[in-house]
Amino acid sequence: MARHLARMSFVLLAIATVSVQNALANTDREQSDPVGLRVMGRHLVDGAGVPVVFHGVNISGSEFACAQGGSAGNHGWSIFGGQPVDTAGTIEAIKSWHANAVRVPLNEDCWLGIGINPAFGGTSYRDAIRSFVHHLVSAGLFVIVDLHWSAPGDALALSQQPMADLDHAPAFWSQIANEFRDNSNVVFDLYNEPFLYAGYFEHSGEDAWSCWLKGCGLNKYLTGGQPYTQNHRWQTAGMQQLVDAVRAAGASNVVIASGLDWANDDSGWLAHQPHDPTGNLVAGWHEYHGESCARVDCWSQTIVPVTQKVPVVVGETGDVTGAGCTLKNLPTFLPWADNHGISYLAWTFNPWRDTHDVLIADWKGTPSPCEGEYYAAHLAALAAAPGSTSSGPEAANPHGSSASNDINATRTLILAVFFLGVALFGAGVLLATNPFNMMSAAGQNRFVIGIGIAILGAASCVTAATFLA
Description:
Helix content: 40-55%
Number of domains: 2
Order of helices and strands: HEEEEEEHEHHEHEHEEHEHEHEEEHEHHH
Mean pLDDT: 88
CATH architecture of the largest domain: Alpha-Beta Barrel
Shape: elongated
Strand order of the largest sheet: 4-7-8-9-12-13-14-17
Radius of gyration: 28 Å
Structural class: alpha/beta
Distance between the termini: 33 Å
């Protein structure tokens, strides 16, 4: 029996050792083969495992101009609103701000070509967006494409809706995913700003977070004009359906799911987190002055717990410029977000004549007074700081990242458990196979103890090999 146990011990030890060697080889291959932007724990990382934090801008136009004006079945007047959006000058201006990401808002009907003038929708629109995204990524910028304006049925997408529609949104994301699935530096923001208020539900008592995740029936949609809403029963697409549409198209790109109350409420996000088989899911959040969660105490209570589980990306933020160039939001929010590793993109890199949420005074990238000046200076300071995580997708430094260090530390700990298991296994076998064990009661006790130690060692080896695999 003792010889049989010894033979079994060596066989099990050999199997465990081979398993660990294979696991380590696989780990080395995973660390050496860049796969682009992805989620690793609570971080976004690039192909080398280096943490990435978005510090960027939105650029508006492609969500509205393609659908406004015109006549029935032939709507739209431009793709980018007559603005020099997809030009080398504009992209260079964005880069000069030390931004590493650009968020591009899209129109569902324009992408799908539903009721839109062919010059501004369908193939023309898709070609223009494809070109813009290509030029941004080629310039070293991450790109977030966002479903911004949509509409159910044959209604025209002239506004943000309470939630994505089942009629068109899954098809939209299936096509987007198919278009950009080979470029992991393009991120999919599944729905801009959900706002599922009780008055919109087809059935009273509907749970907003359940609807957010699984979809539900609504009783009206927003027209984008007058009247503000139009009665109409329609079915929303939940975040889970949108994630499924992306993954079914074969795309593993990072996806963003933003919370309720115009994306400002993430209080139910963790409890209703969509299932993503790739693990490349990020929590989205929008933060503006005057919203329900626009204070440090709310950020600490609601957002910090989310950051401990998944990356958080603020798709939109901005400020209101008061008298004497007084900013009410960014000077408090941006340093807080930086301290918590939260990504953010400000609205908007368009030279509009508003006194709030506008970053530039002209297409050369001249910062707008107060808000633009503050944001530009903040990004410049971040870029100049040692260990900056503001680099774009062209950066790939496999050394010195906190995420990589976390992986290496975990790997070292698991290896220590494995070799401790080997030592315990060997000690247990030696104790159990002592030829004098069966000659006394004490020897029989040593046999039992040896068997127990060997089993504990074997379990440690198998557990370590499993985690490394």
